[in-house]
Design brief:
alpha/beta, eleven-stranded mixed beta sheet
């Protein structure tokens, strides 16, 4: 498949196209996407200035980076110059970043140009982008449906062909699920491979930065730029590979289909699309058979104990004193704390904070949090055992195609259940990519390819092979 990123870079380097024109076209498309509410803000002035600088360097015969002139969108929980960083929350509505995130710095050093901040569930708390304080993003394939979350704006920006790639974060499926719902590729790298420095924290033990793109090949190009150690992120203990740009697998692989993902709760039509992809893999010479992960059914319960606990800790800094919203209605220090948080956080933020505080509180820590971490270890062991036999695991990214806007808003449990096939991978810190697996009616669904730790390139290579077989 043709690489949209390489096409732009080659045109810019050769002088066939100007980076300024490419970025201007992307900004125009972004402005025309208001009906889908893709962006919280645009970084127009900074983007155009940087594009002009790249054109000037090309004209002088100077070297330009691997992403020279390529426009991209960044989820609005990345600290970036040129616009407020809000995390789609009123509590950070006017917050200006004092520095840029490491991922953005690396992309810009390679010549990529951020055109705007993409919408998300506030503080990345959600699976539909309906929890944004700036309104929901709408699915590019059906404006009555959600784009997935929390990186819904990033996925929509790619699906609408505004930009060839976008950057998001994945804590429990927040890159992969929007990729599935919007019909694009979404990669969650191995935990610890990409720096989170300068990214608004959600849950520190599962937060991962990754790309969304049209192809696995382009996702690999972006990962190549952003992967690697950073002294500002203490959890970055992995050595990166020389390159993450995928190549088609030349050797047959042993692939396990996760039994628990293909059973109860999976939409019948989605199951057929996944089975069709399995047949393609078999025809390509791969061995594909069913594998069971006995504790994977516990993953959602583990996730919604561990992650809210970390959220409650990470959100404690938003107190009306340090930075962000400070209530003008407070008449005492105690009221500053209470009213600033009450006014600034939305219902889903408050729900997760309260759950987190509860499971960490005296008398409940052992009953909930400690048990959840013990069960998490069992889940990690299940994956480890599976990878003793199989090179990769596969299954659907989600239980079905995108659901209707408002359908699950009043039922948090139903909303949480859409993450049922993604959270286990996050808890285990494994790499996974969602690739388009066809459509149910007019709505895309995704196939999820899962690798063992540090097998990011292998995951992308199988995804690339599936694209070539399409």
């Amino acid at each position: 498949m043709k690489s949209a990123i390489e096409s732009i870079v080659n045109d810019v380097r050769s002088g066939k196209r100007k980076a300024l024109n490419i970025v201007s076209e992307a900004l125009k498309k972004a402005e025309e996407s208001t009906a889908h509410n893709v962006f919280v803000s645009l970084t127009r002035e900074r983007a155009l200035t940087r594009a002009a600088e790249i054109d000037e360097r090309v004209a002088k015969g100077e070297a330009v980076g691997a992403l020279a002139g390529v426009p991209f969108a960044a989820k609005d929980n990345f600290l970036i110059f040129g616009s407020a960083t809000t995390a789609a929350s009123n509590i950070l509505k006017h917050f200006e970043a004092p520095y840029q995130s490491t991922a953005i710095e690396r992309l810009e050093a390679a010549g990529a140009i951020c055109i705007g901040k993409a919408n998300l569930d506030a503080f990345a708390h959600g699976s539909s982008t309906e929890n944004s304080d700036f309104g929901p993003t709408k699915n590019p394939h059906d404006a009555t449906r959600v784009p997935g979350g929390s990186s819904g704006g990033s996925a929509a920006a790619v699906a609408l062909n505004i930009v060839p790639f976008a950057i998001g974060t994945d804590t429990g499926g927040s890159i992969r699920l929007p990729a599935s719902y919007c019909g694009v590729v979404g990669l969650k790298p191995t935990y610890g491979l990409v720096s989170r420095y300068g990214v608004v924290a959600m849950a520190s033990s599962t937060d991962v930065v990754g790309p969304l793109a049209h192809t696995a090949y382009d996702a690999g190009i972006v990962l190549d730029v952003i992967a690697g150690k950073d002294a500002f992120d203490s959890m970055m203990y992995l050595e990166r590979e020389a390159s993450y740009v995928p190549a088609v697998n030349s050797e047959p692989l042993k692939i396990g289909v996760v039994k628990e993902y293909m059973g109860e709760g999976l939409n019948d039509e989605t199951k057929k699309r996944i089975e069709a992809q399995i047949e393609k893999l078999k025809a390509a010479g791969h061995s594909v058979e069913e594998v069971s992960l006995p504790n994977v059914d516990l993953a959602l319960a583990i996730y919604y104990v561990v992650v809210p606990a970390e959220i409650s800790s990470n959100l404690a800094r938003y107190d009306g004193i340090k930075y962000g919203h400070s209530s003008p209605h407070a008449t005492s220090l105690d009221e500053v704390y209470k009213k600033s948080r009450s006014e600034g956080f939305n219902a889903e933020n408050k729900r997760r904070i309260m759950i987190g505080n509860y499971v960490l509180s005296s008398g409940y820590y052992d009953a909930y949090y400690r048990k959840a971490q013990t069960a998490r270890t069992l889940l990690i062991r299940d994956f480890k055992k599976a990878f003793e036999t199989y090179d990769l695991l596969i299954g659907p990214t989600g239980p079905g195609p995108a659901f209707k806007l408002g359908q699950n808003v009043a039922d948090p449990l139903q909303m949480y259940l859409v993450d049922i096939m993604t959270v286990s991978i996050s808890l285990a810190g494994l790499p996974a990519v969602s690739v388009p697996a066809g459509k149910v009616g007019d709505l895309p669904v995704g196939l999820q390819i899962i690798g063992e730790r540090c097998a990011d390139k292998q995951v992308l290579s199988l995804a690339h092979q599936l694209e070539e077989l399409a």
